Amino acid sequence: MKARVPIFQALLAAPVLAALLSAPVQAEDLDTLYDRLRAASADDSPAIEAEIEAEWQKSGSAAMDLLLRRGQDALADGQAGAAIDHFSALIDHAPDFAEGYNARAAAFFQQGMFGQAIDDIAHVLMLDPRHYTAITGLALMFEEMDRPADAADAYRAALAINPHLAGAEENIKRLEAETAGREI
């Protein structure tokens, strides 16, 4: 009987090890990626952005990942209402998954529902304060709401996290030019 115990323990350990190796990224892993991104050269930043954005897509559940993909597909097909339904179901089942809120914010934005979109961005940033695409989305909403100074501030915040964020510096310059001489 004693000879079977190590084999039994090894069999139990194998699935546990496999589960640990396939587990979603932990906060410290994202911390490392964000640190690498902030220090990266312009040539290296796209690859690091892709790593971060791939990690954002991982909920840790195949079913939740499927809801995210279905919502993203609906949004890409111009079906924002259906996308909102998928993302809302995702959020109901995975309320700590930041990308569910970020994706639903994009769908609300497409529907012109800025209040709901901003609420979802707030959830994203509570879960991941360095989610630079959520901050960029907030900047876009501020632009649509004719709040150029707030939009420029949001772009600056995104640049502090991702110094090579495409278009952010140009948008800041454009917004600063628009608000030059404008009364607050």
UniProtKB/TrEMBL annotation:
The keyword Cell division does not apply. TPR repeats lie at residues 98-131. It comes from Falsirhodobacter algicola. This is Tetratricopeptide repeat protein. InterPro entries: SGT (IPR047150), TPR-like_helical_dom_sf (IPR011990), TPR_rpt (IPR019734). The keyword Repeat applies. GO terms for cellular component: membrane; TRC complex. GO terms for biological process: post-translational protein targeting to endoplasmic reticulum membrane. The lineage of its organism: Bacteria, Pseudomonadati, Pseudomonadota, Alphaproteobacteria, Rhodobacterales. PANTHER family: LD24721P. SMART domains: TPR (SM00028).
